[in-house]
Amino acid sequence: MAPTPRTLARRARRQVLRPAWFLARAGRASGPEREAVVQAAKAAAAAGAAWLLARWVLQAPQPFLAPYAAVFLVVQVTVYRSVRDAGQQLAVVATGVLLALGVTLLTGSVVVGLVLVVLVGLLLGRLRVFGEHGQWVAVTALILVGQAGPAASSPVEAVVRLAEIAVGAAVGVVVNMLVLPPVYQRDAAAALTGVTARLADLLRGMAAALREDQEARSDLAHDWRHRARALDGEARRARDSVAWARESLRLNPLRRRPRTPSPSAVLVPAADAVVEVAAHVHDLCEAVVDAAEDAAEDAAMDPLFVGSFADLLDHLGEALEEIRDDPGALSPRSDRSPPGSAALELMTAVHRDAARRLPGSSGEVRAGWSVEGALLNAAQRAVVDLTGRRPPRTPTGPTPRSDA
Q: Which residue windows are transmembrane per the record (predicted)?
């Protein structure tokens, strides 16, 4: 069905007003919008400073490569990335300048020169030394040949262009390092605590539903699996945010402030554990879906197991809530017992109880036993990732006879 004119008008109005809403959010509170505005302002200031400095130091009439290099480095999301990319950027543009110089010396034709610099520049840009910026070899050479024409064959002009790049790179790195250097710890902490809270809510809801129904309902099981799959991806994105937070402190002057916690000691262990637990929760939900399908075929789980397993899910949810409230609980520097200790104790009891009902113990084979084993396996992996310990092995099989 095609959208109505009113719907199209509403969409158009939203697109027109979106920049104003973006700026309003940036002015109202800190967040991604304000960070984007700050980085844009820094890039604009760096471009102007690089242009003026290059004209003053190099006496170049049109030092357009200086602001280009400055903007390229300021818009990098971390100070460390600006410094790292400065060397690559110098190598990229220097190669482009030298390529333009060599081609114009050989051909003397602007058209042939444009064709050759694009062809050779794109091939050279695939070298690993240029990283992800290799395509700019061809772009830089193309601009120089197209703008300067035969004048691009001047070795003196090439040296000036290289100096412009050096000036612009220096300005970009200094501006990004000293003027409101970006730090992403708050975003990382919010992403991590958010996904941890939603994982805990999912486990709590599963426990309550299993305890109430004494079986896995198909409609709920499929909904849990869908939520778990989404949370698995969200947990990985949260771990990426923590990695950005860690990198944002490298070479950052703000790191020297005592009030700035180190994400490597606080957030990284928690993020790694939450990612692993989220994957196990997804496996667990897959097993619950199997249990719901088996229940429809008169292969339901043991009610005693369902009750114990619901308690185990509650303890896992409680452990995740501890991480949500204190991400440093999993830090190696923490002197408290790791979250999930209660789940570990209950896991041991559930293993012991399940071992008594194994086929080898009683000779009776239940159809739901394989599903219970899959659920226990996924839950155990989650407990191990939270505590770093594995439940003690419970001997299985029949009790040996005594030769009395």
A: 90-123
The answer to whether 259 touches 180, Cβ cutoff 8 Å, is no
Based on the fold, state whether residues 205 and 159 are members of the same structural domain: no
One domain, residues 231 and 296? yes
Q: Is 152:101 a contact under the CB 8 Å cutoff?
A: yes
How confident is the model over 49-65, as pLDDT tens digits?
999 999 998 887 788 88
Q: Where are the alpha helices (DSSP H) in 249-302?
A: 263-295
The pTM score is 0.70
CA 271 to chain centre: 10
Domain check: are 140 and 226 in the same one? no
Nearest to 277 by CA among 225, 200, 219: 200
pLDDT digits (tens, 9 = 90+) for 109-140: 788 889 999 999 999 999 988 888 888 899 88
Nearest to 320 by CA among 194, 189, 187: 194
Residue 19 located in a structural domain: no
Give the three-state DSSP class for 296. coil
Band of the pLDDT at 400, cuts 50, 70, 90?
very low
Which structural domain, as residue segments, surrounds residue 134? 30-178
Are 45 and 147 within one domain?
Answer: yes
